[in-house]
Amino acid sequence: MITTSRVRSIFLLSFILFMFVWDTSQGQNTVLDNGLYISRSGVLSISSDKTSFGSSGATAIVKTDRPAVNVAINLDNQTNDYGYVAFLKGSQADVSLTQQNGVLKADKYINGVVAAYHAGDFIYPVGEDGVYAPCKVSANGASTAGNVSDTKVLYCYSSRGTQDFSVAYKADDVMSVSTKGFWLIQNDQSASISLAFDQADFEGGLPSGVTIDDVYIVGWRNGKWNLVPTNKDVYIFGVSSNPVSNIGTIGSLSTAQAIPKGHYTAYAIGIKKTKNPLPISLLNYSAEKDNNTSLLSWVTVSEINNDHFTLYHSTDGENWLALDEIKGNGNSTEDNTYMYRHHTPNEGINYYKLEQTDFDGTRKELGIRSLIFENENMATLEVYPNPAHTYVTLKGVSYEEEILSIVDVFGKMYMPKQYIQSTNGQRITLDLTRFAPGVYVVSTTKGIAKFIKY
Questions:
Q1: Which of 156, 178, 224, 395 could cysteine-pair with 269, CB 3.0–4.6 Å?
Q2: What's the pTM?
Q3: Domain boundary among 342, 373, 404
Q4: Which domain holds residue 428?
């Protein structure tokens, strides 16, 4: 066993250290002091149960010779002439984190390549140039080394100036990539990956209008940064605060599934490109019978470039006639209520479609509602069981095409073909498992049927 004091002596006698084999017995604590340096082709191997960085409160940054960073880099090939720290199976690094002014306190980490031979989770205490950026790799399954993963990690701070992993090269669904830095992660088998995250990853913080839901891990593949399915609020770094929902404190992001070996060369934090904001935010749209008229109403909670609404009427749900245009409120962040009365609804079923139009002419359909106006000659079909819970059967209807619509008490229409469970002679059975409890009306070419879902 080589003690810490012996390591200091060797370091002072020879700045160039070609090979370090530090093989402490299991159960002991290895202490890495500030200034320790592993030069080209050097390896510091650690097998103790736990490795800490310096004494409490003291700075302890370990450095290794770093490889030349480019898109062809292969951390498994040490012809790049770099040194690294290797944690052997069963060993772990102490990665207890502290915060300072809302960012990770960068006073204890390894500035260079870190390798870990492990079966399961390992947190890599990597960083560079005053930036501490730990990451976790969770090996999935066994490797050729006998249920031990061999993964190397190098964190690259953006000040290194590499153009090979430029943030300008990104997929169409990526809005931006953090300029702070990126991780080179070379895993020898399928693994889940977690990265440290804080608001400082983006210069000036998250852009206006961007939330944590838009923040993703991005991976370098085929010459560009690509979105990686990501989970948020992953507490793997021992931080007690709520890191991600309270932007500005420390947390982490994790890949939603294991990443195959060699699928990505590097990883970073990115922002997903969001769609243009909706022209309006619709709170509700309803249709009600008021004596012999149809009363249509809708409420918006915000409007952007909203020129007008158009209401259409139909008796078959396919052929539409415009009833009227209702002027919108342009740009608004207040609740706005709109109403329209149709004085001449038809006997039977009436459909009402609401459409919104921007100032530039762009149109968007907002929904269809329906009302049934009965007359004495309209037949009432037998329906059973009633009330019903999982299914209901209509008697006197033979074909799917004879069912026109299913409508709830709020005028919301359900397309019937999605819910037809079976047909049998003069009977059709509807599946009610996806219906909310309430009263419904089925309109058919033979008449109407009412039932209650409980």
A1: 178
A2: 0.55
A3: 373
A4: 382-453
